Every structure is written in structure tokens, then in C-alpha cells.
Amino acid sequence: MPATTAPRRFVPADLDVARWQQLEPLYQQLLERPIGSAADLLRWIQDLSELSAVVDEYGARRYIDKSCHTDDPDIEKAFLHFVENIEPRIKPLFFRLQKRLVESPLRNQLGGQFATLLRRWQADVEIFRDENVPLETQITQLTTDYDKICGAMTVHFDGRERTLQQMSRYLEKPDRNLRQQAWELVAQRRLADRQPIESIFQRLLDLRHQIAANAGFSDYRAYMWKSLKRFDYSPEDCLRFADAIERVCMPLVRELDRQRMADLGLDTLRPWDTAVDPKNRPPLEPFAEDDIGGFIDKTRAVLQRISPQLAEQFDSLRAHGNLDLASRKNKQPGGYQSSLEESRQPFIFMNAAGMQRDVETLLHEAGHAFHHLAACRHDIIFLRHAPMEFCEVASMSMELLGADHFDLFYDPADAARARRGLLEGIVRLFPWVATIDGFQHWLYTHPGHAPDRRAQQWLALLDRFGGLVDWTGLEEIRRSSWQRQLHLFHVPFYYIEYGIAQLGALQVWLKSRTDPHHALAHYRAALALGGTRPLPQLFSAAGIHFDFSEKTLAPLIAAVGEELSRLPR
Question: Which pTM does this prediction carry?
Fold first, then answer.
């Protein structure tokens, strides 16, 4: 194991997590152990933490393996064995352990750092139902089926078989006919699997509705609000955020669309015109598609400029083999950072194809990795995990801080192009967040709706937040375009976090422009708090405000607009 792994005190060194007969006695020991003092309770938590870290890392590694090799039956078998035969057996036992802590008369003697944990576990105890465990297993099986379908999607283009991620680079080519061919080929490939994906999603909706009903909730949204520990804002706050995005961001989005049409000399903006350089310059190529080593080296150089300590942490990912960045067939789409809790190492997964977006993605996931490494100073795993709204501040801030150093990938003119692209992307992110979040609010508060009604609601949101893109003749593609959003399948209701966190990241960025040293120091200090503080206090520790009303959104979008006006188009 890596040197960061602490010696085990409770879990046997030779434990095989895949064998329930070895695992179950450890949980039973913790359930039956006498606890007579605060010291006993703390040691009990420490042992449960150690066991949880071992199991969590095992499950994470099985998921990583499955992500990297969706076509390997042995890897899929090992992953499914864990999610079908191990996790479901752990959940009721872990619930009993959580309940033992929250009901312990000694819990208030643990100290303030445990207050947030106790609040979170209380919510878990209140919503847990034994009958939901097999339903959650079915959900994991269905999302695995979705991943397999998406991972197998390839097209033949430009003389070779390519993943859909690799096809994205053609949408940046100046040749409009080539862009259209590439876009339509990918869209038709997705349509070929539209019905099986629709079927998977319908089954997911039904299962999630049943889970909420089993737990006594009126709908799945109410269930997820508690499950996600959203103590500091309400569904109504999210809907008001969407209204603010419509008022504040959409005028700028439409103006950017008009500028793009004018620069490209077009009367209408089509879906294949949104990623190309508006001056029809060749696409930015920060690294050769097959030069992943060079990509890593340049990203490390960016981090070295921001902070030598961050660069050293990034080196540890490479040293431990915790980077899988290249796009290839039979690899799950998307990108993520996974925490290996016992090793105290992060793993970054993505599908790089030699595009500027790859640079932003790696910086984003590196921000998550730095958060994990900072929070690992807490020996107890349960104190490491901040709310996701702040986890995304960690990642999105790193994108913005890294943007000042894009010259390590480009000449000055192209570095300015890349910075402009990042800022435009932020402006456009907010309407997409409102679209995905609003879609989920509707999906889960209208149980039993028909697929056609679902599509109508999706189209209504696209009309509201879609800008000036013309989809004439592409209506069938547009109505099912939600299927490409992985979050809808894997992590329901996880999307508003990006909008909330982007406001935090923009505040970090603005502070860094006047005082980079203190902005970075506050950012890193907040990361080190892990999950020991509630969400507003984590934002405050980073020197920023937890607020996503129009009062905060408007000046930040104005600042982005001013910066865009200074950057060449």
C-alpha cells in the first residue's frame, strides 16, 4: 500500500472485503462492544472509521476498474459482486451503528468537530429503511447498464473508429460541413440507443419513487433533500436561483450568441456552431491527443506556479498510478475524482482528447484531489467529507486559478482565447445548471408521468435557457438530449451544487486578482476543514459568502462580462 496508509489497528491486514464471512464479524464486534466512557466512544468511532475506509476503498477501486474497462466481464463481475452481495449487507448494519452513535448519551462529550457529523447521521437514521436496500442495489445495476451502453458508443469517422468524446474535437474545426457531419453522426449514434436508455431511466424513476414512499416522503425530491443533508437551503431557493439566472445570465448568453453569429458570418446558429472558434481559427490544441504524459507535465507546471505544494501533491497521483486520462473504446464517458480513503490518495478519471476542455477538466478534478488530500489530515473518515456544494468550490476555483497560466500550453494569443472560452463557459454553465436542476425538480415531483410529457418538460426548459441555437429539423435529437447527462442517471439532484459552487469559485477568483497569496491561503484552509463545519462556515473560512440569490449572482456575472469585454474575441 502507499506510504500514506496508516497501520491498521482493528481490521485484519489480510481481510478480503469480497468475502462477507470475513467482513460481517467486524461489524458485529462494533455493534456489541461495550461503551462506558467518552474515550470508549471515540475509540469505537476510530475503529468504525478504519473499517469504513477499508471497505470504501475496496468499493472505489472496483468502480474505477469498471469505469476504465466497461467490456471486461471479470471486472464487471467483481464490481457487481460488491454492489449486490456486500454493500446491501453492510447498509443495515451501518444504520444500526449510526443509530448507536446518535442515541449515545456520551455523544455530546465528543467535541465540536463532531457536531456536523452527528447532524448528518441523524438525518441518515431518520430516512433509512431496510426495504430500500435491495432497491438501491437495483439502481446501481441499472446505472451500470447505462454506463455499458454509453461506453460502447463509437463511430467511424475520418478513417478510424472513435469514441464520442474523441469526436468532440471535430466540433472545433473551422470547416462547417465537417462539423455538421461529426455532430450529426454522434447524435444519430446516441439516438440508436435512445429506447434502451429511456427504459433504464423509467425504471430508475419508479425505483426512486418507491424508495421515497417507503421512507414516508411525499416525493423523491423531499427524500433526497434530507438524504443530501441540504440543511441550509430549500427547493424554493433553487427555483428562485433559476429565475435569477434567467434574468441575469440569459441576456449575456444571448449577446454572446449574437456575437458568435456575427463573427462566423451566420444568419442562424446551429448546434455544430457552438464550440468552433468564432473567428474560424483552428481549434486550440493544448497537447497532442496521444501525448498524455505531456498533458500531465504541463498541468503540473501550471500548479507549480499557483503553489509548489499543490504541484507536489499532484506528483503523488502520478507516482501512485492514480491518473487514467486518455479516451479509449470501452471506457466509461465523463470524468471524476474518486477518493481512496484508506490509502488517503485521490484517483482522477477522464477522457482526454487533446482539447482545451481537457485542461479545464484536469484542473477541476485536481481541485477535488487537493480537497481530499487536505481533508485527510482528519484521521476519522467521517470528518473528511464536506458538503458537495463546497467540494465543487474546491474544483471550480482551481479551474479559474489555473486560467492565468494557460500560457504554459499556448502562445499569448491562444492563452487569451482559452481564458475567454473558460469565462464564456461559466456564463453558459448557469443556464445549464438551471435546466438540469429544474428538470429534476419536475421529474421527481410528477411521479407516474409519461415519457412524452417528460420530453415536453425538457423542451420547455431548453426554450427557457437554451439561448439562440436553432434546432430546426433536429427535433427528435433535441427532445432526447437529456440522456447524455450522466448525473440524471447516477446522482439524482446533484447539479445545483455546480451553480452554487461556481458563485463561490468566482469570489475566490476575484479575490485572487487583488491578493493571490491570501486568496489561496483561505481556500486551502477551508479545504482542510473537511466536513467539520456546516456549509455557510466553510464558505466563510474560504473568505467568500454562501449565497446564491440575485444579489450575489448579478455583480459576479457583471465582473465576468467586464473581463470578457477586455479579452479579444
Answer: 0.90
